[in-house]
Specification:
heterodimer; A: mainly alpha; B: 4 helices; about 65% helix; elongated
Chain lengths: ~90, ~140
């Protein structure tokens, strides 16, 4: 039962990742692309944790934490670039 | 058996929320509503996955790990911050047409002429000159 639910969740987050990729390629504005990249990071975290459940190891949590941190910093950097035209002034 | 049902429920809930968040990112009409969809729904989706993971490792493997709590805490702290930054960028940059005007004042973004604190700093001479970044028209 858990295996089936895992497959379902994998499919959902994979589809969500594809939708985000579509949004990165085709977006009406720059902020939409940045938002899509941010959402991609969140979906990848979910996929990593799901893979950790499937394999039964806790190794992937470290990777998830690292991706969460790098994703947050990159989103803030992109937003700062959009706001001011520069990152470090 | 009960734990299996609970884990399955959380996994399905998380999958549905994660998909709905990204679908809203594609489907919703204007930038501010598009900002709403992933920041709300996807953090709930990841929250569901992390709760399922905690229950799974606690019941099946017999060890309780705090990594999930760490990820949850970090995501729930950073998601509003990045959403606020993106909302600021939306307000400041290519402003959407249908954006309602706040009563009595302008939206709280930096703009020369209305930012009196920055002008006061510029008069004393210890602040950079009040030129907006290139490519902006206000």
């Amino acid at each position: 039962m858990i295996a089936t639910a895992l497959t379902f969740a994998f499919a959902c987050f994979g589809l969500a990742l594809l939708l985000n990729l579509w949004r990165v390629v085709r977006a009406p504005g720059v902020s939409d692309r940045v938002l899509a990249l941010d959402t991609m990071v969140v979906n990848v975290i979910a996929l990593l944790v799901l893979y950790g459940i499937q394999q039964g190891t806790a190794v992937y949590f470290e990777a998830a934490v690292l991706i969460a941190m790098v994703g947050f910093v990159s989103t803030v950097a992109y937003a700062k670039f959009m706001l001011r035209g520069d990152i470090v002034e | 058996m009960v734990w299996d049902l609970l884990i399955t429920g959380f996994l399905v809930l998380a999958g549905v929320f994660g998909f709905v968040g990204s679908f809203g990112l594609v489907k919703l009409p204007d930038p501010m509503t598009r900002l709403h969809a992933p920041t709300k729904a996807t953090t709930l989706g990841v929250g569901g996955v992390l709760i399922a993971s905690m229950l799974f490792f606690a019941t099946k493997q017999g060890h309780i790990s705090a990594h999930e709590l760490l990820i949850t805490l970090f995501l729930f702290l950073t998601a509003p911050v990045s959403a606020h930054f993106l909302a600021k960028a939306n307000l400041h940059g290519d402003r959407p047409e249908g954006l309602p005007q706040p009563e009595g004042s302008e939206w709280a973004t930096f703009s020369p002429g209305t930012d009196t604190a920055a002008e006061a700093l510029a008069e004393t001479g210890d602040a950079p000159p009040l030129t907006p970044p290139e490519g902006r028209d206000h």
